[in-house]
Amino acid sequence: MIEINTLGFAAASDPNRYAGIYQVVKGLTKGKTYQVSLAGMLRERTDNSDEDAYRYEILWGYNSGADADWANLDFKEYVPIKPIYLRTAPGAYSTYSVKFVAPADTVTLFVMAHKKWATGARELDADIDAISVAPCSTGSSGGSTSCTYVVKRGDTLSSIAVKYGTTVANLASLNHIKNVNVIFVGQVLKVPCSSSSGTVVKAPPAVTPSEPVTPGLGSEARPTTYTIKKGDTLSGIAARTGASVNALMQANGISNANRIYAGQTLRLP
What we know:
This protein has helices spanning about 155-165, 170-175, 235-240, 245-250, and strands at about 1-5, 15-25, 35-45, 55-65, 75-80, 85, 95-100, 105-115, 125-135, 145-150, 190, 200, 225, 265. The longest helix is centred in the C-terminal third of the chain and has 8 residues, at about 235-240. Mean pLDDT is about 80; it is low at about 140-145 and about 195-220. It has 3 domains: about 1-135, Jelly Rolls, CATH 2.60.120; about 135-205, Roll (Membrane-bound Lytic Murein Transglycosylase D, Chain A), CATH 3.10.350; about 205-269, Membrane-bound Lytic Murein Transglycosylase D, Chain A, CATH 3.10.350. The protein contains 4 helices and 14 strands.
């Protein structure tokens, strides 16, 4: 369990408090795809559900090599673990998995809790369990590698296909799904790891990439904004506009790629 508390402060305390754990992971293969999985639950000492739903969050990240500098991570991403329970009335653990390409043979993996606001007399308990790093498997036939994805509320097979750069037909075949319109929350799906979509996280490149080309626009002027529609995901928008998920997040000040809403206007980098 990771705890952050401001119990000694009746009034406001410093914002953006972090606490967490790290582990140096050796024996990886640089360039190979791995899957990080964990289970988590957020609990607070007193009920503050009338405040920001994202007042407490969990994030994961890594540094290349044996580098414990948590303040300057090579990569970090917020984990969609909700809701926030009362400390004395815990609920079910949420599960999360993500794949990443190892930037080196050794990485330092971090899991941290984040208390966003300057609020006093608070206690956050972040229960983290079942953290694992596993190589994505390769079939004996020499086919593409596969990882897993846990279905969340609001997911469709088509949105998951876009997220992993594959097709609905391929996902249905991988998972023996007869009706592509029937999937359920908590279902574990096999997904391809070889995709270059935003769900495969990589350390940022050392050089600035060239200006992305928007498919289908030809020589027309490239749009500078996009208005989010119901059912959109950031990875789907990235695929359609020729940008990367990380570039969209940086251009729009987005800290959690899973938190966008219909009607929101995004700047396109």
